[in-house]
Design brief:
Elements lengths: L5 E4 L6 H8 L5 E4 L11 H18 L2 E6 L13 H21 L4 E6 L22 H14 L5 E6 L2 E2 L6 H11 L3 E4 L3 E2 L2 E2 H16 L8 E3 L6 E2 H12 L6 E4 L19 H5 L8 H17 L5
Parallel strand pairs: 1-2, 1-3, 3-4, 4-5, 5-10, 6-9, 7-12
Antiparallel strand pairs: 8-11
């Protein structure tokens, strides 16, 4: 019998989302958030041992166990040439993790990405839309989704996009740094998406975890969860400068082709969140208001020189 508390294992616990999950864990939630040095998803034995320990300790303490997988190979450009490592971490790792969760009847929440789509739509992508990744990163993340959903585990895949927060390198922290270093910034204006604060996403994942562990799990196993609304990277950068209290016209628009990169970026990767709300989960607020609330902590971490 459980006592109503939850025991959560977070592979990737030292990344930007993992650290946010630890920081925002609600009362009654016990967290274990190992980084890659402690739990490398490419090491099958370590994965099985970690899930086994979670299940056994949670059972002994009367807690409901769940895994939130925040571990991923996210170096999008590097993945084009480091394909073996990207597949090992983004596809093979989740496959082993899902098998271990299935064996111990531990539910699994697995994070995925907008990069599984071609990025050529003219409306937000729904969970029922065809997937067609155009990069190695996208291919590996799609393989991870398939591994989880086809494993037989009680698994849910949550796709999100354009993550930023106080922890780890991300777009907002980069723009803060560049605004200090340069008079003018050039940012692409032909890629559209939904900036998503890790704080809001973490709250949403805890809400989903509570539903699952209390026996009220949504029937849909594939969900989209982002902050509402959309913008371009250029619009996003202007909003960051507004939060800094400096002139947003310092940001100049440019095209993706002006600065080619190894991996192809989706031109349009807005995700429709109807799957999330139809599951009875709380919708995330508009991206612009989320940025205003997130900004003080993000700026503080950047100014403090904290890069991890």
């Amino acid at each position: 019998m459980t006592t109503g508390g939850i025991a959560v294992l977070v592979p990737g616990g030292t990344g930007q989302l993992g650290r946010e999950l630890v920081a925002r864990a609600p009362a009654g939630v016990r967290m274990h958030a190992p980084g890659r040095a402690e739990l490398d998803l490419t090491q099958a034995g370590a994965v099985i041992e970690a899930v086994t320990a979670l299940a056994e300790q949670a059972g002994a303490d009367g807690l409901a166990p769940i895994v939130i997988n925040a571990a991923a190979y996210t170096a999008v450009d590097a993945a084009e040439t480091d394909q073996a490592r990207a597949f090992a971490l983004n596809a093979d790792g989740p496959r082993v993790l899902a098998a271990a969760c299935s064996s111990h009847r531990v539910p699994l929440l697995h994070l995925s990405t907008d990069y599984v789509f071609a990025g050529e739509a003219d409306r937000p992508y729904r969970v029922t839309d065809p997937v067609e990744p155009r990069s190695i990163y996208g291919l590996t993340k799609l393989a991870g989704e398939d591994a989880v959903l086809g494993s037989g585990a009680s698994g849910w895949v949550v796709r999100t996009s354009w993550l930023y927060g106080a922890y780890g390198p991300n777009f907002v922290r980069t723009i803060i740094r560049l605004a200090d270093e340069r008079d003018a910034l050039s940012v692409v204006d032909d890629q559209r998406g939904s900036p998503t604060w890790t704080g809001d996403l973490a709250d949403g994942l805890f809400e989903l975890a509570a539903r699952i562990t209390s026996g009220q799990a949504p029937g849909a196993r594939l969900l989209h969860c982002t902050n509402a609304g959309e913008t371009t990277w250029y619009g996003f950068a202007r909003a960051v400068l507004e939060e800094l209290g400096t002139d947003p016209d310092r940001v100049r628009p440019c095209k993706t082709g002006d600065a080619p990169r190894p991996a192809r970026r989706p031109a349009y990767s807005v995700l429709a969140n109807d799957s999330w709300t139809e599951a009875g989960l709380s919708p995330l607020r508009d991206w612009r208001s989320a940025l205003t609330e997130a900004f003080p902590s993000v700026e503080h971490q950047q100014r403090a020189g904290t890069h991890s």
